[in-house]
Amino acid sequence: MPENSVSADLQTESHKMVEWTDFERDTIQDIFSRIEYDVVGPAALARCLVVYPWTQRYFGGFGNLYNAAAIKGNPMVSKHGTTILHGLDRAVKNMDDIKNTYAELSVLHSEKLHVDPDNFKLLADCLTIVVAAQLGNEFTGEVQAAFQKFLAVVVSSLGRQYH
Amino acid sequence: MTTLTAKDKQTVKAFWAKVSGKSRTSAPLLMLVVYPQTKTYFSHWQDQSPNSPAARKHGKTVMMGVGDAVTKIDDLKEGLKELSELHAFTLRVDPANFKILSHNILVVMAVMFPTDFTPDVHVSLDKFLAAVSLALAEKYR
Question: Closest approach of chain A CAs to the CA of B127, in angstroms?
């Protein structure tokens, strides 16, 4: 049978895909099955708004963000934090194609929300801190590496459609 | 961005006092696992695994250095002058690695002190570590 050029293209495409070890897959599934989205999401977003206050620029309509206590108690922050975690869930369920899973969300963040993609990394770091606090000693170096790799892929995918 | 307010200094000193005595050596060790490129600085160790005696000892050295920086928080540039010369001329560690270590210190704080490591403590500690990194890089060029 002659060489099928379509399968050759698929070969190239699969070489561009992120490769996950079994440990990394299991770790990501495990973490996201254990954390409470409506606790971790709000905590991560609130922490981001406190630790990197310039990120508040995107939340002008959220009301009182005056200090850490206000941010923590702000219901719009909580709601949006939960929304973000559910957004991450899509990547968790599509680890082999995060790039395409997030194509629309990337366009949204670029064209409509006008979020500087550097901010994605800031939120990712805060999420790492919050998850670390939740998991305690179970957040080993290996788990941290897997989690950060996952978030790096998410961040990269979200920034892809910017131009 | 690295001017520490009085509140930052107070927060850092109070938090460091609280965590003092407990095992704080794991941050540098984490770094070797999570950012394997940092191992390049330790090729002279026979055993580069994070739990090796050499790694643990060095982790302690580094964290004691950070603790020392807390005592010099009012003038980090002057206080860390010699350490900066060491890192610049002898060790020649790429300053990008200071950021990596700072991140891992914050992660360890979250793991070990989940309730105490509030967002307010986090921001002050993050600023402090950035200021330490800057002071350490002072003599590089």
Answer: 9
> A131: which 2 tokens?
């998850």
CB B140 within 8 A of CB B88: yes
Contact criterion met (CB below 8 Å) for B141 and B64 = no
User: What is the spatial distance between Cα A89 and Cα A69, in angstroms, rounded to a whole number?
Assistant: 28
- Token pair belonging to A158: 């979200």
Give the pLDDT confidence of A23-69 residue by residue, as tens digits: 999 999 999 999 999 999 999 999 999 999 999 989 999 999 999 99
Average pLDDT over residues B15-31: 75
- Size of chain A, expressed as the number of residues it contains: 163
- State whether residue A125 sits within 8 Å of chain B by CB: yes
CB contact under 8 A, B122 and A47: yes
pLDDT for res B22: 60
Residues in Cβ contact with A137 at an 8 Å cutoff, skipping those fewer than 6 apart: B111
pTM for the full model?
0.86
Q: Report residue A104 as tokens.
A: 């629309």
Residues of A in contact with B122 (CB under 8 A): 47, 50-51, 129
pLDDT at position B44, please? 87
The token pair that represents A113 in the structure block: 């929300």
CB atoms near residue B88 (< 10 Å): 17
Q: Residue A112 carries which side chain, given as an amino acid letter?
A: K
Two structure tokens written together for A57: 């620029």
A56 interface with B at CB cutoff 8 Å: no
- Interface pTM, i.e. ipTM: 0.82
**Minimum distance, in Å, between the CA of residue B79 and any CA atom of chain A:** 26
> Per-residue pLDDT tens for B27-64?
777 888 888 888 888 888 888 888 888 888 888 888 88
Instruction: Decide if A133 touches B, using CB distance below 8 A.
Output: yes
